[in-house]
Amino acid sequence: MKKRVDLPEKKYEGYIFDLDGTLVDSMPLHYKAWRKALARAGAPDSVFREDEFYSCGGKSANDVVSFLNGRYGLVMDAASTAADKRRIYLEMLEEEGMEPIHEVVEFVRSLGDAPKAIATGSAIPGASRTLAAAGLSGLFDVILTPEDVENGKPAPDMFLKAAELLGAAPGRCVVFEDAVPGIKAAAAAGMDCVQVRRASLA
Fold first, then answer.
1. Which residues, given as ranges, of the chain have pLDDT below 50?
2. 69-128 pLDDT, tens per residue?
3. 35: closest CA among 56, 49, 54, 24?
4. Which of 18, 20, 25, 84 is catalytic?
5. Is 18 among the residues known to form the active site?
6. Domain spanning 14-26+99-195: CATH 3.40.190.10
7. What distance in Å separates the CA atoms of residue 63 and residue 199, rounded to the nearest whole number?
8. Per CATH, the architecture of 28-96 is what?
9. In the chain, which residues fall in CATH 3.40.50.1000?
């Protein structure tokens, strides 16, 4: 099996993790939910291919719809389409369950009481149920979503807020991320970053 991550040997004051595609293999499920929600909203099938999906990693669902409207000249309602996507994802999660990315989760468990946070582009209901489905509830001191900050990824706001809540200096934190927007956000926050390599959606 292909190795997904090169784990750091350096010790940090704070450990910050993205959720989808970093702690859990949820990206294929999110993508299926997006395809279904966008079809319901009247988007053509050519909209939101795999590369676009990953380019939006860390964005809120509302921001994703706004991005697609702007790129393709669509007029989908951002709030209702995003809400539909979240509902579809939760239904699929209930039916299909969720698999953790074991290399990363084993590392999280090895950290013991070290300060740990999640900074995710998902809304809190989806994030909480994803963690529960993967058996990861209770492992983290802090869970942050785009609703908790002014600007989502690739802005550094979520990671800086996570460091503050963990009581750690930003320069002494490490971020685990799978998507380019999150990697850029970690760099903007002045934090080391460990990339979790993604599996194919196919």
1. 202
2. 999 999 999 999 999 999 999 999 999 999 999 999 999 999 999 999 999 999 999 999
3. 49
4. 18
5. yes
6. no
7. 24
8. Orthogonal Bundle (1.10)
9. 14-26+99-195
